[in-house]
Amino acid sequence: MQNENLYVELLENDLNPFILFKSDGKVNSYNKEAEFLLNFVNIKELFELAVSNASLNFGFNQKYIKLQYNKQNYYAILVGYRNEEEIALRLYKSVSNKTNHINSHKLELINIFRLIELSKNSILINSPLKVDELYDISIPDIKLNINEFLLLLNDCFTHFIDEEKIVLKVNIKLGEYKIIDEVKYKILALEFISDKKIDIDYMIEQKATRSNTDIFFSKNKLIIELPMILN
After folding, report:
1. pTM higher than 0.90, yes or no?
2. Sheet containing 183-194: which strands, arranged edge to edge?
3. Strand spans (E) along the chain
4. 181 secondary structure, DSSP code
């Protein structure tokens, strides 16, 4: 009995999400990491992921598959069932040991909205794309690598150039910070929101790395996050 309790606690506190589904797709149980994951992906999508990757007979099937939900990346899944009443799904999180560091000599103080307008006006000059802007105009000037960030913005607008309308939200994330060289910074987020599902663009991901920003794709959103370095 003590060993069973230990296994339950290990599973509950595992860094990898675990979900136990009923046969109708409803959730029977899940751990803390899965509870966090369910903020970004719906239960139906995860249930379909489990069913579509289950073994043909009772048992377990491990598959290496690249998945991304919000900021979380996963490299493999494990699906198992011993009867027709329940099916379990476990996702294996990718962990990065990258140290956050920025070369301060390449940073310049700039108004983020000035760069957005510059990029938008140059890329969308002959495009019918309408951009609904939801901006927090109280955001101060911040330091960033202007050239690299502008190239990233250009690619982001180009990504949506054939669509009719997108929403661009720019705001400071409440309660979230990024640690760089042991200094804590607030996070500024740019959300490009489309009416359509957005495909991952690996070229944009590379430019995000060069511009010292984080970028991720979540259903119909392309989100850029960058530290608010003010001085």
Report:
1. no
2. 130-135, 165-180, 183-194, 221-227, 214-218
3. 18-22, 27-30, 59-69, 72-81, 86-93, 108-110, 130-135, 142-144, 165-180, 183-194, 214-218, 221-227
4. T
